[in-house]
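Q: Convert this sequence to structure tokens.
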Amino acid sequence: WWTVGEKKCNSTINFLSKKANILYKFYTIFVKAYVLLSFCYQFGVLLSRSSLYLIKVRRVWIVTLLQVINFILFFFVAYYKFMSVYIQFVLMIWVGLMGGCSYVNVVFNILEKKDVGKAEKELAMNICTCFNDVGVLLASIFVLIMDNTFMKIWGVYLCLFLTNSLYMHHH
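A:
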């Protein structure tokens, strides 16, 4: 009887250690996916900011509307988790293209405006740059708060949930 119990205990420990290894790999892929998604976004921004002489957009509101659609799509992707991360890589390049396109064309349209004086253009550029920097600052503060509060807790609960569901599925 002792041997049967010991074998059962050893098999459970072996199972949990294998699942812990799988969870570690999952977590590593998740962290790397975030870094790769960020890279894809920055790559898209680089391409679009470098392509002003190829493509000029006068109606920047269209790009802004596309960004709203991107936000809605990624909100549902995050909530329902229905999209492969590989498709998200491609979409994140698209999001970067839209962000860079919006930025570079707003600046271009301000500078190319014929009926606005030099002082007004300078003021518009300063306001545009200030709002851009404030947006980046607020996003950075939000990420710092998020990473050190509810995302840290969420990561722990995710690992506990996956460990429990994998263990229950095995037995």
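The chain has five helices and no strands.
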